[in-house]
Design goal:
Blueprint (H helix, E strand, L loop, with lengths): L5 E6 L7 H11 L6 E5 L5 H10 L2 E5 L4 H7 L2 E2 L1 H6 L4 E4 L5 E4 L2 H13 L7 E5 L3 H10 L6 E5 L3 H10 L3 E5 L11 E4 L22 E4 L8 H8 L4 E2 L2 H16 L5 H11 L4
Helix pairs in contact: 1-9, 1-10, 5-6, 5-9
């Protein structure tokens, strides 16, 4: 594929994203002169913005709320993207086709392997949310031995559609469904907690030994993660997933491995955790 002349994250909102810090560190370490930027684009303007950006030699990432819309805009998608029905990484190939991949699948799987080591069999996972991030989580979980999942959403029709796409899902349910209390792992795949201390679900409704995974990240972790840890839960936010999906995206764009150490240091510094 031809190498991109521009890189960007397309989403709404994007002002809090740490992706530019991470990718600009990788680009500098690789001696590449281009920069990675964040472009705030509404749902109404997404398709034309994506097309214009690609026409200008661009490649990049997609975040909330555009991942599923981006999937519909691609000429060709990888297996992971097709399973998810969502794209978070895009580029144009040598034939001029717009190509989409979902590196969130690898990002989540790598983060969970770091957290758990070998994945235990027969885990029960409650996934909060039914968008592109949730689909990436479910695609990764489908590779775990004997795992089953429930999908919990405010929009039950959307949660049901997600269930139909992913055979690992045994039930689509509301955010109030008591099945959350039976989960070994509870994953927040919604934006809740991104810009406030709101919890996606009350911790009183989670099993005392459940692992808490928040795909949202914040400078000092999210309130949900901090409060869960204070109650004795093993808990992690999405910073590690961001790193590992970013590594995989860089490989898609340039066909080479980035300096992961430089990326991690830039993330920690930008998040105020170094």
């Amino acid at each position: 594929m031809s190498k991109p002349e521009r890189l960007a994250l397309l989403g709404h909102p994007v002002s809090r994203s740490l992706s530019p810090a991470m990718h600009n560190a990788a680009l500098a370490a690789a001696g590449k002169s281009i920069k990675y930027e964040a472009i705030d684009v509404t749902i109404e303007d997404f398709e034309k913005t994506l097309s214009a950006f690609l026409d200008g030699g661009g490649a990049g990432n997609v975040t909330i709320p555009h991942k599923q819309h981006a999937f519909q805009c691609m000429d060709a998608c990888t297996g992971e993207a097709n399973k998810c029905g969502a794209v978070n990484t895009f580029w144009r190939d040598d034939y001029g086709r717009t190509c989409g991949h979902n590196t969130d699948v690898t990002g989540f799987a790598t983060m969970m392997t770091e957290l758990l080591g070998e994945i235990p069999p027969n885990l029960r996972i409650a996934v909060l949310g039914a968008g592109g991030a949730a689909s990436a989580v479910l695609t990764a979980i489908a590779e775990w031995p004997g795992a089953t999942a429930t999908v919990h959403g405010r929009d039950l029709a959307r949660a049901s559609a997600t269930r139909m796409r992913h055979s690992v899902v045994v039930k689509a349910a509301s955010m109030r469904d008591p099945l959350i209390a039976e989960a070994d792992i509870v994953v927040n795949a919604t934006p809740v907690g991104m810009s406030s201390d709101e919890h996606p679900v009350e911790l009183d409704r989670v099993a005392p030994n459940a692992i808490i995974v928040d795909l949202v990240y914040a400078p000092q972790e999210t309130a949900w993660v901090r409060d869960a840890r204070a109650r004795g839960h093993r808990a992690v936010d999405g910073l590690s997933m961001l790193l590992h999906q970013g590594v995989a995206a860089f490989e898609c764009w340039f066909g080479e491995e980035p300096d992961q150490s430089a990326m991690k240091q830039a993330l920690l510094q930008a998040a105020g955790r170094s």
